[in-house]
Protein 1
Amino acid sequence: MAALQALIFDVDGTLADTEADGHRPAFNLAFREAGLDWEWDLELYGQLLAVTGGKERILHYIEGWRPEFLARPGLGDLVASLHRRKTAHYLALLRSGAIPLRPGVLRLLTEARAAGIRLAVATTTTPENVTTLLECAGGHDLPGWFEVIAAGDVVPAKKPAPDIYHYALDRLGLPAAACVAIEDSANGVRAALRADLRALLVTLSTYTRGEDFSGAVRVVEGLGEPGDSAGATAGEGDCIDLAALFDLHRRVYGPT
Ligand code: XBP
Ligand code: MG
């Protein structure tokens, strides 16, 4: 069986808790700026997260909550321009330093890199959101640590479709069995499993606690930091380090 060679990270909810105070207010700013009285509060946004991808989420909202817009000429242009402005607002928020990486993320990335474990991202969000988050929350050279940043519209179908994971594996040139995937949502878990990524860790995030993570090997609060009682899972070490990920990989595939 293949040895563990790469970690593939989801972004939103996994590298950083971006949804409630990042993407959500950025959507609302774009709506207001366009003269629309749409306001996605915390609860509504939780429902809308069933659909991944910002453009897809706006369309889902129109279909369910504002169906009168469906008959409008230029609906596709409206969605595209709202999403463009949303991305601009989101990038500004990231640049203001409002969104930190989750505890343990930089520690684990540093440890993996030092051990020669390759790093990749597989996300539905816009590519620039990923590089800007990494730069602003982790340091200007952090994007370069990732050999592959698979993001956004580079594939036809977003999570829970497996496309973005297939794309990342293809770019890494690795079989799924050589990787550990780290996700925070049921949609992400489904996408990873459909791409045959079975060594799968879930770190719960604001909106995803309580979702169905069947098929994941381990579900933890977060990666945590050493000695941090709020980190990781009780009884299995106090944080998720590289050794914990090797162990998780062995649980699925056996010793290599
Ligand atoms: C994250 C998302 C993203 C963001 C919005 O899902 O659903 O769509 O909410 O990003 P995951 P864009 O963590 O499973 O990748 O607006 O740039 O699409
Ligand atoms: Mg996510």
Note: The pocket of magnesium ion (ligand 2) is lined by residues 10, 12-14, 184-185, 188 (CB under 6 Å).
Protein 2
Amino acid sequence: MLYGSIEAGGTKFVCAVGDETLEILHRESFPTTNPEQTMKDVVAFFKPYEEQMAGIGIGSFGPIDIHEDSPTYGFITSTPKVAWQNFDFVGMMKREFSVPIAWTTDVNAAAYGEYRFGHGQDVDSVVYYTIGTGVGGGAIQKGRFVEGFSHPEMGHMLVVPHVDDSYKGNCPFHGNCLEGMAAGPAIEKRLGKKGADVPETDPFWLIEAEYIAQCVYNTTLMLSPDVIILGGGVMKQTHMLEKVRKAFTKLMQGYVQTPPLATYIVTPALEDNAGTMGCLALAQKVACSTEK
Ligand code: ADP
Ligand code: ZN
């Protein structure tokens, strides 16, 4: 029995096949172009495994429709990526593969990966943020994704501009929301170079840490999770974690007694595998729940 994973991101789709122990047997990435082209690659990747496939887990960029009783369930909906607007992702996969499909956001999938196999293993509630090309957040409380009329869009929370930061933000919807101020492209536009090329000693990183700390502060006050996991390309700056913890402590002023920050504000234990592991585990879960 095999499980499939699709991490559908804005720049690439990472497809993987795992066995019953969720060990990854094969993994490949395809560029995100348009649904016709990218999905052709995705379908071709899984076809050789079709006979043994028991379920597929998809973690997609969004916004997406997650309501099972909605006529557009399984669609990518109002994404700024025009070619992908109103794309019937789950429907398309179901036409190609007659297996149960788990469908959630890319960050929820990564949150689930950490919840099952990483920093969330021994706790009930985790929040996962990715700070990369965009900022996204997903939360699990007592084993369930936090959602209501739709999935959360935590990356667009408002942040208070730093006094030393004159950048106005680049979110097309909100300007200076968290994504507009702190995602990779905002760093690049502000400083004229990629985040990876900004030295650790650059004072900008204190400003960046301040925005991420505001996000952790808001998350703490709203959800009181057991752990907050910060992933994505920008957190590859290993010095950032400690800067975020310091800025968070200053913001919180001791108002809430969180778990020790060394275990409360962390980077993903699974590193870049959180999304794939989450999708595989969700595939296994949906396959088992529909077993006769
Ligand atoms: P995506 O969000 O597209 O899935 P990533 O999480 O890798 O992918 O995020 C990519 C973003 O992170 C880019 O804007 C890139 O400039 C930035 N980034 C990647 N590596 C680093 C690094 N070491 N330091 C700072 N920023 C980085
Ligand atoms: Zn925004």
Note: The pocket of adenosine-5'-diphosphate (ligand 1) is lined by residues 9-11, 130, 132-133, 184-185, 194-196, 232-234, 236-237 (CB under 6 Å).
